[in-house]
Amino acid sequence: MFDFKKTFLLLIMIGLHVINLHAADYESEFKYRAQKIINYVADDYKWDASGWYNCNNPSDYGKYNWPIVVASFQKYGINNPKGNQYLTHFNTESCIYNRFHFNVVGETYIFTHYWDAPSVKSNIKDYLTAAWNRTDSYNLFTSEGTENHLAMTRTAAYLYAQIAKDSFPNDFPNAAQKLAEMKSWLMDWAAMLYTSGPGEWNSSTYLPFSITGWLALYDRAKDPDVRLVARAVLDYYAAEVALHYTQGITGGYESRNSSGYESVVNYGDYVGWLWFGESPKKITFTPGSQNNEAATAVYAASSTYRPPMAVVKLASKADILNSMYYNSKGEYLLNNPGAIKQTFYVGKTFTLGAAYLPYGGFTGGDTQFQMWKFVGKVAPDTTITAKTANVIVGYGGKEWNKARGRMPWDQVVHHRNVLIQTTKVPLNFTAIKSEIQSIIETWKSNWTTDFMKRFPFDAKPNPVNMSADVLDASFSYMAVWKKNATVSYEIANNIAYFTLDSNFVAIRSIAQIAPTVTTATDNYGIKDTSNKGELCGLVLEVGSKRDYASLEAFKNAIQTKTLLDKSQVESGRVIYKNLEGEVISMQYNSSGTFTEPIYDWGYGPTTPQIAQKSPPFVQPQWPHGEGYGRVPTWSVNNVNVSASNLAVYKGKNFELSNRILRIYAGKSDSLRVDFSGNLPVYSTTISDIFPVAINRNGNIELYPNPAKELVNVEVNSSYIGSITIELIDLMGRSIYLFTDDKKFNKQIYTIPLSKKHSGIYFVKFKEGQYVLTRKMQIY
Q1: pLDDT in tens, 97-145
Q2: Does the pLDDT value for residue 257 go beyond 90?
Q3: How far apart are CA 252 and CA 202, in angstroms?
Q4: Residue 756 confidence (pLDDT) above 80
């Protein structure tokens, strides 16, 4: 029997946001967190007159020093002596000419937000001139770099061009041309973001660097089109963070991730905390410390941008519990939309998600991927500073206490509360490694040849390299992190059981009879081992403590309801029946081909490019055959999931497809951003967010869609009389039929869905002679 009181208290205990959060409440909470960051950076962040990173490493000194300027001006005003000394101090020929992407984005934020500061007035032209005249691969307009590098440089280039055009037109006669070129880049990149998502998705390392320039544009661009596009870009990132952020940790999967697995420790964690709160611990800053991860969030703390209330409610996850999301991203330079499939599940007390990477794992570019991650909620304690949400991650062929990396032979499948991780080192490992090494050497040569044609006087080191993690190691690891967390384990009936704060976890071995568990200071390592050419791996299933009163109850359910079928492991197939009775069938695909993340490693163009795209930038053609497969195929209850064409985001209350972002958050806070045209168009009207067919009598709205427990059918028409609502499955079978006498122009009918299987359905509505059919999804 459902215990409402118990559930309500649990919700409070694990710190879920109140569903009825109002904009005024959010603004007050945001300002409190923002001021906490600003106070730390302005008053307690380590600094001195020379700058603690100084110009001994001139490439990115701004990453560490410009936040002090922003915080000092923001808190004490533009005449603050501390804030005004930095621009003058670094105004040397070496510093301002040789600076890196991290510098220019901070500079332009300062210049556009604090224009009347004395040090801005006295130094702006020198900084602008040095940036404008730079011609190597770190120049403003055709620089090359990773995705966050380009986001920093091109947004800064636009703002520098705006300053040049408005304040120094005689000194920079081509400023208007450069302004137009950079606007074109901004528009094009933003549209691609809404088409395929970013290449650095969910990055706990580079999120703040990816958005700082867009924050500056949102606040200070004079062109309303640019400000509108900046808003759309920021709303995308805020929504991406909102879905995956759980108690200070990015859940699921990451591109360009950090190695920390504790709450609110990485760069992106602090932005998530600033925007959405929800930390399991007290957030404090030690005077004299160098917490650059927190300091970098000062730009978001000082900006006028706020995530929409629809996004804030999405972050609370109160309305999307027990919901599965089927997502996708393009390859690294935003080409080939849908190439990387992703699945993400929001459970009652945890999140779990996986990315299905087509990347080979052979180059150094693969070292910053997290293929999957579990994040379990804990009871918050704001009286202590050392507490974290529970985290479990995994990888094959690498020491289990290593944090990240796409390993060449790993393939994973995720469905709801289950994660299957497999590894199979091919028998022809030595031949494969030798062939790939040869191709990478050719890639390095091609890169050097074409790069030197684009930038003949540049001394940039060759970035292309072979990964050190291409290992002849037939094992598969998971790591259950226990530092500053509550974790215990036992092995029973050949299954490793872990008791976490709010969840139980069962881990089975595919090759061994039982997994091997090793204890270290920060985590437990769970290992499965096989012979070369044979499959090994681990199967993880999560149970919330809301559903199981004790570990014994969970163990009993695992023993009696689940089944790991190993009968076809020799052919690469793993079959698992979960606690819900769903049958997940995974086929490890050892044969196939792959690609690699291209970053700024591409070759092809021989002249500088404003945009880094693929094509014209290319990478080698990779081999095809045994040992080169990277992505598995899988089904759930005999329905093929792996073949699906996925939207950028698709799940309950949140969708991004066909360049239209939709977030359902009730009638007052829902959001729609339509970027299918040249500019984003905003709407908060329910019928715009969940559009329906319209007949001559009126219209119908279905919400939420996708849905789990119920769907509302809102009818608004002049028709009075008998109506029929029918729910039909993909086989054409009627599974729900409702008739009524419509007595008013506007009426709302509710269809219960709790006992319906997940999948695609059609809602058929009939009034008089007119029939409308709408597609919906049940999770």
Answers
A1: 888 899 999 999 999 999 999 999 999 999 999 999 999 999 999 999 9
A2: no
A3: 9
A4: no
Q: How far apart are CA 469 and CA 404, in angstroms?
A: 11
3-state percent breakdown (helix, strand, coil) of the chain, nearest 5: 30, 25, 40
Q: H/E/C letters for each residue in 496-543?
A: EEEECCCEEEEEEECCCCCCEEEECCCEEEEEEECCCCCCEEEEEEEE
Please state which of the four CATH numbers 2.60.40.3080, 1.10.357.10, 2.30.130.10, 3.40.47.10 is assigned to the domain occupying 690-778: 2.60.40.3080
Nearest to 454 by CA among 563, 685, 612: 612
Tell me how far apart the terminal alpha carbons of the chain are, to the nearest angstrom.
23
User: CA torsion angle for 552, 557, 559, 564 (degrees, to 10)?
Assistant: -140
Kindly state the tokens that stand for 703.
């919400």
Q: How confident is the model at residue 686 (pLDDT cuts 50, 70, 90)?
A: low
Give every CB contact of residue 556 below 8 A, 6+ residues apart in sequence: none
Q: Is residue 2's pLDDT more than 60?
A: no
| CATH 1.50.10 residue window(s) in the chain | 17-316
Q: How confident is the model at residue 81 (pLDDT cuts 50, 70, 90)?
A: very high
Q: What is the mean pLDDT of the chain?
A: 90
Question: CATH top-level class for 17-316?
Answer: mainly alpha
Candidate from 202-211, 382-391, 584-593, 753-762 with smallest mean pLDDT: 753-762
pLDDT band, very low/low/confident/very high, at 687 (cuts 50, 70, 90): low
Can you tell me which residue has the tokens 């009652």?
Answer: 348
Distance between CA atoms of residues 461 and 479, nearest Å? 35
Mean per-residue pLDDT, 318-341: 92
Tell whether the model's pLDDT for residue 398 goes beyond 80. Answer: no
This prediction has a pTM of 0.88
Q: Per DSSP, what are the bridge partners of residue 475?
A: 529
Residue 646 backbone phi and psi in degrees, to 5: -100, 150
Q: How far apart are CA 204 and CA 230, in angstroms?
A: 21
Q: DSSP assignment of 91-130, as one string?
A: -SHHHHHS--HHHHHHHHHHHHHSTTSHHHHHHHHHHHHH
DSSP-based three-state secondary structure for 702:
strand
Encoded tokens for 652 = 């309950």
- Given a cut of 80, is residue 3 above it in pLDDT? no
| Nearest-angstrom CA–CA distance, 205 and 254 | 9
Residues in Cβ contact with 407 at an 8 Å cutoff, skipping those fewer than 6 apart = 361, 395, 396, 397, 398, 423, 469, 471
Phi, psi angles (nearest 5°) of residue 403: -90, -30
How high is the pLDDT of residue 722?
83
Query: For the packed helices 207-220 and 101-113, what is the interaxial angle rounded to 10 degrees?
Result: 30
Portions of the chain given CATH number 2.60.40.3080: 690-778
| Average pLDDT estimate for 228-243 | 98
**How high is the pLDDT of residue 587?**
98
DSSP secondary structure string for all residues of 280-318: SB-----TTB--HHHHTTHHHHHSS----HHHHHHHH-T
How far, in Å, are 357, 466, 470, 597, 603 from residue 435 at the CA level? 21, 12, 13, 19, 20
